[in-house]
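[Meeting: bench + compute handoff]

Bench side (C.D.) handed over the final construct sequence. Compute side (W.E.) agreed to return the predicted structure before the next meeting so the bench team could plan truncations. Sequence as handed over:
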Amino acid sequence: MESDEMHFSAELFSWNFAIWRHMGYLDEQKRRLARFIISMPTVVCVLVGFAFFMSKNDLEEDIYNFFIIMVCFTAILRVLVVLMRQRKFLDLFKVIEYWYIELQLQNSENALEKLKELTKKARFCTKYGLRCALLVDVFIALQPMITGYGKLVADVKFPGIDFHKSPIYEIMYLLQTCWVLPITTFSYVPYVNFLLIFISFGIFAIRDLQRRLEDLCLMDDKDALDNVKRCVAYHVRIIKFHEDLEQFFSLMSLLDASLYCVTLCMMLVYTTMESCILKSFKQLPA
């Protein structure tokens, strides 16, 4: 896929599109690179899973470990879904590109102006969203050094290996901060941005269809009939676009919602238990 073939898509999706191409997620010639990139997050996710099920940590630490597992697992799963259905995912970008070219050929100035506004907003929001995510990564990476040497970004365990002894600790810490954190961020965040931008483009298409229907009152019968036929075909394209998005993103969205609900429930249980313990201590006789 050449960049000039996806001029508008590359502009609309900005850094999300560019970085996924460089990482091999959207390049059929770089699938081995993509698999290598997600190999370490996969290993760390498994090791954190061992720590979650084997150790006897406080509930607070278990919630944190479960959250790390959830983020890594969903990020890895997103990449695998994209790699397995890479051609289908690339077709979504091509649909938007052809849509934009068609609007240019029709010289639809109002629609093109709306697309420029959409592109500007998408680039602005995703750019600052990335900056916020990177700031969170820096905080998470430095947090073990601040709280005490010997801690890791995510607690990992494996039978027969002590990850808190030098030099294994330093190696694991560097792998987590320099490989797992950035790769997880650049796998998780762009996928969410893609979904939001696709939805925003779909909303634009619906509003453009609404505008076309409103123009019927300004036409004579013959032109109005032709416009209705074009609007019907346009509506069919919107429905097909919606079905493609639902087919590609619905399962991951359901998984995200389910896992975040589990995390929220664990946090509520922890908060309730902590408040009950504090209340029982206050009721003890002095």
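W.E. noted at the follow-up: The mean pLDDT is 85. C.D. will use this when planning the next construct.
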